[in-house]
Design a protein that fits this description.
The chain has 18 helices and no strands. The chain has about 425 residues and is mostly helical. It has two domains: about 1-190, MFS general substrate transporter like domains (Growth Hormone, Chain: A, Up-down Bundle), CATH 1.20.1250; about 205-405, MFS general substrate transporter like domains (Growth Hormone, Chain: A, Up-down Bundle). Helix 3 runs antiparallel to helix 4 and helix 5 (about 75-95) runs antiparallel to helix 9. The longest helix has about 30 residues, at about 130-160.
């Protein structure tokens, strides 16, 4: 645990992780809050609720690179304050909007969502050394799992005990607190030794959007495609067994396993290639479909859970190392977009597999999607490593060339 103590001892790191957890928990629960409002507050169908959720998700996916580029050019505080105000207006207005206006407003709110996750990753890259970064990103991925466990559950409980309108206001308030808190902390977006490099200006896209970066983004997409599919496969399996009420327990077991796996992996002395972690995650996900009831399903998802946070953390580390300082915000925004796209695709993909076969086919489809992304990332990384060394070539380990290169210290970007 020494590595975690060193990370948390970095000035400003512990407050940043704490404040961003508030924002990320609320943002993780935003789709659930809108779904409950449309179904319970407007008394519309789940299909209508899915339309609002899709509009919000599409906005988040498109807005990631845009907000990242604005952070690169205009600074962090102005972007955080502007997006926080947009969220306040949106969530205060949710109970008063007709469905058609809510659909449009949800897309705009997603487009200008407070970029808490992307800012946290960019700040970690700027505030930590190469030796500390893997443990720091492990903590960041654990933070994401905690928000996943807590956020939707709190929203569901509050919607059942108070009202979906009040829940919407609460989500907006939490996003405001988190966004304003990060703006107050104003963490650095570039390390001190990167200031001179950043002053040169934005490097051309062809310089950094090469095979290695595409490999990292592909694996980011594949990881969330798998995870989104697993969530649906869990529900389908338990519904067939007549035990759908136990889905929350299975999801909590999955999340807790991920937290444990992230903490263990971040404390290890040597990293593993991203493609290998994602490939293993895909492999252990496929046999989870053999479970027929909730106790066995709890056991079956532990393997996937243990590999989830390490995979997400390693992907984040890879992207941050490959990103040049002048465009790091845009690049991390692209990562967020890739992950949002994966979440959006995973459920429909697995849903088709379940409809055409059995619930176990959902786990198989999710696992195979992860394996396909891992293989693609590995092949792209090998292609990149075979070419002439580039300014960011030192970080191939994160994607998959050689695990023992993980302690090389040049800042990628």
């Amino acid at each position: 645990m020494t590595s975690y103590r060193q990370v948390l001892a970095v000035p400003g790191m512990a407050p940043l992780l704490g404040v961003s957890l508030i924002a990320r928990t609320a943002i993780t629960a935003d789709v659930t809050a809108l779904t409950l409002y449309v179904v319970l507050g407007l008394d519309l169908s789940y299909a209508a609720a899915g339309g609002v959720a899709a509009a919000l998700t599409a906005g988040v996916a498109l807005g990631g690179p845009l907000l990242g580029r604005m952070i690169d050019s205009r600074g962090l505080r102005s972007v955080l304050l502007a997006t926080s105000m947009v969220q306040v207006v949106f969530w205060l207005g949710v109970p008063f909007l007709p469905y058609a206006f809510l659909l449009v407003a949800s897309f705009v709110a997603g487009l200008l969502m407070v970029p808490a996750q992307a800012v946290g990753r960019q700040a970690i890259a700027a505030m930590t050394t190469a030796e500390q970064r893997r443990a720091a990103f492990a903590l960041e991925s654990v933070q994401g799992e905690l928000s996943y466990i807590v956020g939707p559950a709190v929203v569901i409980v509050c919607a059942a005990t108070v009202s979906p309108e009040v829940v919407a206001w609460g989500v907006g308030a939490a996003i405001l607190v988190g966004g304003a808190g990060i703006a107050l902390l104003n963490p650095p977006m570039r390390a001190e030794d990167e200031a001179d490099v950043a002053a040169v200006g934005r490097p051309p896209r062809r310089q950094w959007l090469g095979a290695e970066m595409i490999a990292a983004l592909t694996m980011a997409f594949g990881t969330t495609t798998l995870l989104s599919g697993v969530d649906l496969a869990i529900i389908a399996t338990l519904r067939e067994a007549g035990q759908v009420s136990w889905a929350a327990v299975v999801v909590v077991v999955f999340g807790v396993s991920s937290v444990v796996g992230g903490l263990i992996y971040g404390a290890l002395s040597r990293p593993l290639p991203t493609w290998l972690l994602l490939g293993l995650l895909g492999l252990v996900t496929i046999p989870a479909g053999l479970a027929q009831d909730w106790p066995w399903l709890c056991v079956a998802v532990v393997g996937s859970g243990l590999l989830t946070a390490p995979t997400l953390g390693t992907v984040a580390d890879a992207v941050s190392r490959l990103a040049p300082p002048g465009v790091r915000g845009e690049v991390i925004g692209l990562q967020s977009s890739a992950q949002s796209a994966g979440f959006a695709l995973g459920a429909p993909l697995v849903g088709v597999a379940i409809d055409l076969s059995v619930p176990a086919g959902g786990f198989a489809a999710a696992g195979l999607a992860g394996l396909a992304a891992a293989l693609t990332g590995h092949l792209l990384s090998r292609r990149s490593s075979a070419r002439t060394a580039a300014p960011f070539h030192a970080d191939h380990v994160v994607l998959g060339a050689h695990p023992d290169h993980g302690h090389r210290s040049p800042r990628a970007g």
